[in-house]
Amino acid sequence: MTISKELQDELLKGCERPEDLLGDAGLMKELKIKLMERMLGAELTAHLGYEEGKDAPPDQSNRRNGTSSKRLMSQDGEVPIAVPRDRDGSFKPELVKKGQTRIDGMDEKIIGLYAAGLTVRDIRAHLEDVYGLQVSPDLISRVTDAVLNEVREWQLRALERMYPIVIFDALRVKIRDADSRMVKNKAVYVALGVSRDGVREVLGLWIADNEGAKFWLSVMTELKNRGVQDILIAVVDGLKGFPEAITAAFPEATVQTCIVHLVRHSLNFCSWKDRKIVAVDLRRIYSAATADQAAAELDAFEGKWAGKYASIAPAWRRAWAEVIPFFAFDPAIRKIIYTTNAIESLNRVIRKSIKTRGSFPTEEAATKLIYLAIRNFEKGGRNVREWFAARNQFAIMFDERFNA
Asked: Which parts of the chain are coiled coil (predicted)?
């Protein structure tokens, strides 16, 4: 719709200062109010079947019955409007529904502020400073709690039959325990899948006090119940009990230790002045062409550093059964498994959201915020780079399982 220059000139008559247009009593706010009231009047006309100012059909008892005042929260502050009524109360407007108190995406704005990590107190202060709105903590809680229904649907949604890669990772969050009322460090586990077409998808998130084979088996069972029949490569960060659980649910899956996490764990034993050279020597292990060559490089590393950092080589040897599958893959696949950029990016988004919170009052509160962080993460682009080469290698190496 194009607004003519003549109409624009007519509307702007008397607007000499910015506040005449954009102020609390300015043209833009007044125009919004008048247009909303006009549209509500049109809805009532359609409901009653006769125009305002004209007589109702003689056989119709329902009539216009004045207006009721309503104040709505919007990005322009509080907006007072007059909502038309009918005599028998059967009119249910669509533009501003009965019981509605917010317009202009205020719910989305509140949820967006919550997803950015702002507390309820911070959100109230922001809305008052920017929009002049005084919002109760209860309203903010009700708006953000509505996300929980979306979380439940997301957690139960159907998944694809096969994922070439699923990366499992964990981070720690402080949550008040429902029984003891003490704040505890709980683990939030996230599963990030890469689909056959190279699309990243967060398959789910789970909160638990402790990891273990029983917990991971329940996660695997849930994924199977939601439609996953096969995982080609499962990448894990030394999660206790995971290899047994994954092979129990998906016997053909290859379990691969996350190389990045193993390197970081190794560097934790090093002084700052040695970290760079130790990292270079570790690279020789995981960049080897074959598992045998990697084992020889590990021996060489141990011979060089065992006297100073005796814990590093044994840590690699303990994880070796989950390290060596890495060497069977083509460089195109190795790169995706090794870098784990996707899960690192996801963790950054989650940590950014939760860093301002000392602790969460409940697991639901933590789940709500982490889910919103995941939703923001997936908006930022979901395709894996250079997937075409990796896809071809998967099609060759896993043949029927990949192409089924």
From this structure: none
